[in-house]
Design a protein that fits this description.
- By secondary structure, this protein is of the alpha/beta class.
- The chain has one domain (2-266): Vaccinia Virus protein VP39 (Rossmann fold), CATH 3.40.50.
- The chain contains twelve helices and nine strands.
- The protein has helices at residues 9-13, 20-25, 28-34, 41-50, 65-73, 87-95, 130-140, 157-162, 179-186, 202-211, 218-233, 238-253, and strands spanning 2-3, 54-59, 78-84, 100-102, 115-121, 141-152, 175-176, 190-198, 259-266.
- Helix 3 (28-34) runs parallel beside helix 11.
- The protein is globular, with a radius of gyration of 18 Å.
- The mean pLDDT is 95.
């Protein structure tokens, strides 16, 4: 297991996400990209494949974009709820009609509320104690409920090519998972329904290679997200998108794509 030691206090406590980090999540470029129709297309496709309806909790929901997309595209199918430690992004989520619970997920009293699905989209890598979050998810899932996890893949092609120069090896990420370490983390409470690697961004590889590991400011990250979102939406780039999709599929088959994605079923 690769992890940060010691973990920077502001990231370990989550204070960063309720302070300095909130500006990034609420930047116009980030919000525009997160709420674009193409932003969560992979996650939504996977989620719908396994859970066509029910009560859904998105942990680390930030500005609420995933739940907004889920509710907008499939009205009446889901009872949605988001939670996060970052107050300002939650304010934005509420302004878009996404109901939220504020504060530390580990300390939230859900009482008798049970969910059909709990999602952790790009969250576990930020947590000092990811196992405790998964335990909490297990406790609030209905029997046979599903947990969806997406984390960066530390054995991806990008990491193999760039090493420490890769922009996603940085202080906010406290854990770096392989398929094996993620499987061992979840196996006590969950059985694996599906495991895959997904996403690939050649622009990131090119930029990080040229910059030799120079720190990438949050604004630059947001601007790149906005630019790649625009590429996805441009109908003139359909041939390039087809080639990209083939490349991503090939890397996924070799477990070399950028992210690990696991669909997990609660063990009773």
């Amino acid at each position: 297991m690769i992890y940060a030691s010691p973990a920077p206090a502001e990231f370990a406590s989550g204070q960063y996400y309720d302070g300095a980090g909130a500006g990034y999540y609420l930047s116009p470029a980030k919000l525009e990209s997160d709420y674009a129709a193409v932003r969560f297309e992979r996650e939504l496709r996977l989620f719908r494949k396994h859970r066509a309806a029910g009560a859904v909790l998105d942990v680390g929901c930030s500005s609420g974009a995933f739940l907004f997309q889920l509710n907008s595209r499939f009205p009446g199918c889901y009872e949605i709820l988001g939670t996060d430690v970052s107050g300002a992004p939650l304010d934005y989520a509420e302004s878009r009609g996404v109901p939220v619970v504020r504060g530390d997920f580990l300390e939230q009293p859900f009482a008798d509320k049970k969910f059909d699905a709990v999602t952790f989209w790009a969250v576990l890598e930020h947590l000092l104690e990811p196992r405790r979050f998964l335990e909490q998810a297990w406790s609030i899932l209905k029997p046979g409920g599903l947990c969806f996890v997406l984390v960066p893949n530390v054995t991806s092609l990008a990491t193999r090519l760039l090493g420490a120069r890769y922009r996603y090896i940085y202080p906010q990420h406290l854990n770096y998972f392989t398929r094996g370490t993620l499987t061992r983390l979840v196996e006590a409470r969950f059985s694996v329904v599906e495991f895959r690697t997904t996403h690939f961004n050649p622009i990131v590889i090119w930029q990080d290679w040229r910059q030799h590991g120079k720190e990438v400011p949050n604004q630059e990250r947001a601007d790149l997200l906005k630019r790649t979102t625009a590429y996805k939406q441009n109908p003139l780039l359909r041939p390039a998108k087809a080639l990209y999709a083939l490349t991503e599929k090939s890397l996924g088959a070799l477990s070399l794509a950028d992210n690990l994605v696991a669909v997990l079923r609660r063990k009773n």
